[in-house]
Amino acid sequence: MNLIAAVDKNWAIGCRNKLLVSIPDDMKYFRQTTTGKVVVMGRKTLESFPNGQPLKNRVNIVLTRDKNYQAKDVVIVHDLDELHAELEKYESKDIYVIGGEMIYRQLVDECDTAHITKIDYEYEADAYFPNLDEMEDWEITEDSEEQTYFDLEYVFLKYEKRRDQNG
Predict the structure, then answer these.
(1) If exposure means fewest CB atoms within 10 Å of the residue's CB, which of 30, 31, 94, 97 is most exposed?
(2) For residue 118, which of 131, 101, 99 has the smallest C-alpha distance?
(3) Among 97, 102, 103, which residue's Cα sits nearest to residue 116?
(4) Cα(99)–Cα(13) distance, rounded to whole angstroms?
(5) What digits encode the pLDDT tens for the residues 64-87?
(6) Structure confidence at residue 167 (pLDDT)
(7) CA of 147: how far to CAs of 134, 140, 144, 159, in Å?
């Protein structure tokens, strides 16, 4: 499974249920990477999309504890067991965890690849991505040239979980 997120210097991902910043090339990368795939998110992430609509041309799976929650054109699961049963229908490499903080934290250990857009700026934030730089089993395997959007500098990074040397 994959994780995908844009983070700031402190691994922040959002504030008041909104992205910290919208960078067109990052949005394009996200679209290209996840289109035709499966995206897993929490309820608040779905509700943060324009008109609360699911992402087009993807299977949208929402993990929420709210048993009465309903949304059009999404698969709703209420716990990790239900989520895992649903995800068995898909290839692991086609599954992208897209947020928010609680969902990332619950699933980071089950993922083996993370596509991170790292923005060289510190935002006011109330939601964070797990800091992969502090986790010894994750390493950067690809990085892009530095990009700029107005005065923001950012890079596209690919982290992969280190393979067990014995296995």
Answers:
(1) 31
(2) 131
(3) 97
(4) 9
(5) 999 999 999 999 999 999 999 999
(6) 43
(7) 24, 17, 8, 18
